[in-house]
Amino acid sequence: MTALKAGARLRDDATGTEAVVVRISAESSLELRAGGPAALGKRYTCAVCDAQVLVAKAGAAEPVCHGEAMSLAQAKPLPSSD
Question: Residue 2: inside a domain, yes or no?
């Protein structure tokens, strides 16, 4: 298997889900696993290695890294303009 890099696409043929790798580290083990809904246009982050994927095609698969489901990334708060 070739090493993943930023910009690579992950696909789950069984569910039709696709995700684009945004950030990856050497210890990442990214994959898509059937079982959870992946929301279109949402970014998911690994709690262990900080890898990120962006869902390009929604489906019934969830992004997984290190054997655990990745969590939905939260938006950074903007500074107030007071």
Answer: no
